[in-house]
Amino acid sequence: MDRSEAQSRPKRYIDFGRWIRLGIGVIVVGFLLFRLWNVLWIERAYGLDTWTRFAVSGIILGSVYAVVALGYTLVYGILFMINFAHGDVMMLGAFAGYFTLEALKSIGFLNRSVGTSVLSVIIAFSVGMLFSMLIAVLLERIAYRPLRTAPRLVPLISAIGSSLFLQNMAQLAFGAERHTYANPDMIQRNSGWMVMIQGKEVLITYTGVLTLVISFLLMVGLFLLVQKTKMGKAMRAVAQDKETAALMGIDVDQVISNTFAISGLLAGAAGVMWGLHMGILYHYVGFIPGMKAFTAAVLGGIGNIPGAMLGGLTLGILEAVGPAILGIPFQLKDVLAFSILVLVLIFRPTGILGEVLSKERA
Amino acid sequence: MKRTSLESGLLIGCLSLFFIVLGVTSLTGSLVQDWFKLSSPILGGWLLLFLMTFWGGTLAFKKSPSKSWSETLRTGLSVGLVAGIMLALTIWGLGTLNAQAVPIREWLVQLTPAAIAMLTMGRAPVVAALLMFVVMLLAGIGGAAWAYAALHYQWRSVLNTRWLSARESVINMSLVQKYQQHQYSKQIAYGVGALVLLTAPLYLGRYWNYTLGTVGLYVILGLGLNVVVGMAGLLDLGYVAFFAIGSYTMALLTAPQPHDIVMSFWLALPIGVLLAACAGVLLGIPVLRMRGDYLAIVTLGFGEIIRILSKSDVLTDFSGGPRGVRAVGGPMLFGLNLNNEFYFMYFIILGIIIVAYATHQLQRSRVGRAWMAIREDEDVAEAMGINTLKYKLLAFAMGSGFAGFSGALFASRNKFTGPEDFTLLVSINVLSLVIIGGMGSIPGVIVGALVLKGLPEMLRQLDDYRMLAFGGLLVIMMILRPEGLIPSSRRKMELHDDESEALVPDVLVEGGEV
Amino acid sequence: MRTRVVFVITLVMALALLTGCGGSAFECEDEWGCAEIKSGQTVKVAYIGPTTGDYSSFGIDMSRGAELAVAYHPDVKGFPVELVIEDTQGSPEQGAAVANKLAADPRVVAIDGHTFSGSTEVAIPIYEDAKIVMMSPSATTPELTDLGSPVFNRVAFTDRQQGDAAAAYIYENLGIRKIALMHDGGAYGQGLAEMTGEFFEALGGTVVGKEAITPGETDYSAPLAAIAASEPELIYFGGYDADSAVLASQMGGAGLENAIFFGCDGTYGSQFLDLAGEAAEGAYSTFVPIPESGAFTKFREDYKSKYGDEQGELSPFSPHAHDALAVLLNALDQVAIESGDNLYIPRKALADAVRNTKDFEALTGTITCSDTGECAAASILFMIAQDGKWVPGPGQ
Fold first, then answer.
1. Contact, B382 vs B373, CB < 8 A?
2. Binary contact (A161, B470; C-beta < 8 A)
3. Which of A136, B246, B399, C279 would be A260's cystine partner, CB 3.0–4.6 Å?
4. Does residue B385 lie in a domain region?
5. What is the predicted pLDDT for the residue at B388?
6. What CATH class does A44-347 carry?
């Protein structure tokens, strides 16, 4: 049903839309450059240390977005469907990690030695990832699989319903109040390396670096999985054409199930990273970050794995730096993020790096 | 032991555990306690668990119908065994932990000491667990036996024929026959309906006028979104934005603060509708070219953008900021102040009639058929010569205009408007009522609004579970009955597409002229 | 046709005459009319607040305070008092729905509520219409009493009073001259932060930075970094405990190690301390101290024995909810008129009696209402977090 916009649209005699788009683009870019110049050379409200802080905060946030975006990208690449509940799967993974760390803390394992601390974090990641994987697979089995041949609107609504359900389920089971993540002492929040910039100390937190490293590893791992393994090959085949893939002897149901499992693993990892770095957790931490991560996936080019990473980092940095450049309060950063989504979809619907996983849409 | 019955048992066991963790058992307990004036909530909670396993028994039987009583008993026994073991272990565990004063509720908030006491009936954990095990065994066997009996003794069909014959006899009564054959039977029905509607606000009283007024505003919202989602097939998740625009227009134009343009309600109302429709077009032009699911997420973003902007520091002087706008003006007619929920009820009823009539006519017109073609297959529609963008924009503008209308009435009736009235939840509520009522179906939307907005108002205790139920309902409806509770006839045909061929020529002919 | 109309009109008039004359011997002389409580019926009062939803801890705690107030004052001239508890979920829309529900009930005579300012604002015209007197325990927006409603009163101190006191405390007691303002974009937080800023500048201090955040997020490092660039000595935050905790715990990482976090009465409570952990140390909040008295000790004991929780654990406002209702019940005792078997409550006289409350001994202090309906007795105390507990801040 869908197709890429530019190709199949009938040619008009004069393409006004294109000129309008160009005009808007020039205005937006021009205004941004003007503000940037203004902020950097005229107002000079922030020193280099502050810009570094913005960048650090943005990169870390962006790398979490990136990992969540990877999950969106995978599922979208194969089913052409926004898995609205993906953010909530991440939230449940974060809760699973939270309970694991609390349990390890209560038996005194968490801080017994460096080794147990490292082991605890690994256990928390494993539990969070496995739990998210379970939820994602169940979600696909219950809410999406029966609707695979239905009109496009139907699975989309089912996805929104699932998201609502998971969110409210977490609120009912775990309560509406916030929970604090129990970090091991060696990676307490607000502890890290001090970097001197223009005579001022800028903190690079351990949890932040951990987040960045893990998300990069996950991206590389996923890229290799999709490009090099047999399972990845099957996934790419299904992404291109389900019928033909089935004819070639690929179990399409199994491949889709695998895709959801992988996206769940990624969401779980993102959830635990979120908890370790941000420290505060409640039932609503999945939905809006999920939407942002989807924005990031679109920004980088949906279906494109390095694109999701790039999109995530770009969005994170823009959210941290954008309000400062534009001189608006930070409460408007969600406005900024969603405006970016609209702009990207108008100007370059295929994203920065283009859509890769499947070249042609079903 | 059959695999299917073990599976059913496992499923029911998991569901029951899920209910316990989410507090559904405690809720049922307290509801039953309230309704029947019992001294404790134990009966209700246990009844729920019993019924679950009972249902599990029937489920297992249906999956693989047994031929004899003994086989049926075995099916029920295995279901009860699995569910019973799971529940008994849970109750034993919870009871023991509770007895040792472990603060379970710090992790799972619904498992309060009171809830656990309800599950263990206030007895020792072991006793309660054994009791639960026995009860679940009985429930499983009972369920399977019930299903066996229903299958083999045909009670249901007996009941069914009785019911049908009763219906038949009513229909054949001379009075009813005469009425149906009467020349004006339809008009009489409409007349009675109109009379009921017109007199309803008189005897409803203040509270019901207000509450049903809110439901009515949601009906208007639903009818508007129905045009966008149900007829044109465009998933709009930021519908609340247009509601907010209508509401804020009314508020800013008629309130003394912050702009001191104290305009008449009658002037502000059409301006609100127009502005909302214009906003729909402005958003639609860039956005409607996108793929369906991108549209969903962009509109969601737009809804959030409007809400955040309306409360932001940047626009505080313009929109009243987080404090909102107070003293919003109400309608005056011939020097008569009509500004209370009683007269508003009439406005709202009038609004619903106008909007319902308009959408009904549109649905049957060429425009409606063009929308249907777009919803069915955009490429084909475009190939047939339908200017898809134009029709999509029209749908968007109409839906937004109706939302603006509802919003303007909302602000004026409440005499207040603020950013907290326009959260994402409003969009989700409206979407749910359209989908659950039946996409594209006008009566469906009205029933949907009554059920989804009116019912929770009456059952306040269930409020915590409202969104959970909406979410679950959306999924279940999509799987079992995507056409909604009261489907429009066309939609039903499309979704059960065996008979849908008949529609295609219709679209082709109409679309070709556009 | 005409004869029938005439007949109906006569019938209606006859009925009206019958009920009018034959009904009761009591004649109500009150401008606003009287509520009639027949023998065996109850006098209804209501507590209204968010008993479910995100702010349910406030609503549940305060409804308990109201329940205890009724337990201490169970009847008006022998007619039992019935407490109705209605839920607003904290939203103005639900607040209006609930207000309409109560306004339709002729036996509801007084309202302990509403709890939040937004909901209260929507409700005031509805109660004014229905002539029901209200006493809010916690609606703090200053403008509410500026509306000049004869039915609205409150025992809460306003945001203006809090801002004034906070600015003075920061300037004089802490000796700080450079502050930054932050708020959560809500009506309460924004108003409070702005007022504090105004008062602080009036004292001669400077506000070096302002920033608004999105409530409910878990990462505020970017806005904090922006604030840090202006090097304030203290951050004043208007908003609730969860966001306060996130801010306080991320200040250290954003270059604000030496700045003080100064919250408001939305910050006070155990939730902030639990969430922020060690980062809470040295943070300030606002608290309304309840003077130690025999009555308050009893209140705490009864609360604990009746509900199983410590008073003050869920929210600090249960004494306020108690006091608001106690004032209302006290006024009811003064104005209620017994006549025959029935009890009559003149509504205007009741509203006046509430407004004229003077030297009424309550939990939060001695309550005297101003002629605009400000009845707050309590003083304001600024608390500092030390060793995981809130203790009074220095210099008070």
1. no
2. yes
3. A136
4. yes
5. 86
6. mainly alpha
- Given a contact as 3+ CB pairs under 8 Å, which chains touch B? A, C
**Residues B292, B146 share a domain:** no
Residues of B in contact with A134 (CB under 8 A): none
* CA A271 to centroid of chain Cα atoms: 10
- Structural domain for C196, as ranges: 160-287
Residues of chain B numbered 233-292 and touching chain A (CB < 8 Å): 233, 235, 237, 286-287, 289-292
Q: Where exactly are the structural domains of chain A?
A: 44-347
Beta-carbon separation of B475 and A169 below 8 A: no
The model's pLDDT over C282-339, given as tens digits with 9 standing for 90+, comes to 999 988 888 888 999 999 999 988 887 888 877 888 999 999 999 999 999 999 998 8
Contact A143 B471 (CB under 8 A): no
Q: Give the domain extent around B302.
A: 204-425
pTM: 0.87
In a domain, C10, yes or no: no
At A4 the pLDDT is: 45
DSSP state for residue C73 in the 8-state scheme = S
Mean pLDDT of C231-241: 92
> What count of Cα atoms within 13 Å lies in the side-chain half-sphere of residue C66?
33
DSSP code at position C292: P
**Assigned domain for C68 exists:** yes
Whether B489 is covered by a domain: the verdict is no
| Distance, CA of A268 to CA of B289 (rounded, Å) | 34
User: How many domains in chain B?
Assistant: 2
Judge whether residue B186 has pLDDT over 80: no
pLDDT at C196: 94
pLDDT tier at B155 (50, 70, 90 boundaries)?
low
pLDDT tens-digit readout, B454-504: 777 777 677 778 888 889 988 998 898 888 888 776 666 666 654 444 444
Nearest of C188, C176, C208 to residue C264 by alpha carbon: C188
Asked if residue A57 lies in contact with residue C221, where contact means CB atoms within 8 angstroms, the answer is yes
How far is the alpha carbon of C380 from chain A, nearest alpha carbon, in Å? 27
Rounded distance, CA C318 to CA C391, Å?
20
For residue A176, the distance in angstroms to the closest alpha carbon of chain B comes to 9
Domain for residue C387, yes or no? Answer: no
Residue C19 placed within a domain: no
Number of domains forming the structure of chain C: 2
Give percent of chain B above pLDDT 70: 93
**A155 contacts on B by Cβ (under 8 Å):** 478
How near does any CA of chain C get to the CA of A180, in Å? 6
Residues C151 and C164 in one domain: no
Q: What is the ipTM of this complex?
A: 0.86
Please tell me whether the peptide bond between B258 and the residue prior to it is cis, using omega within 30 degrees of 0: yes
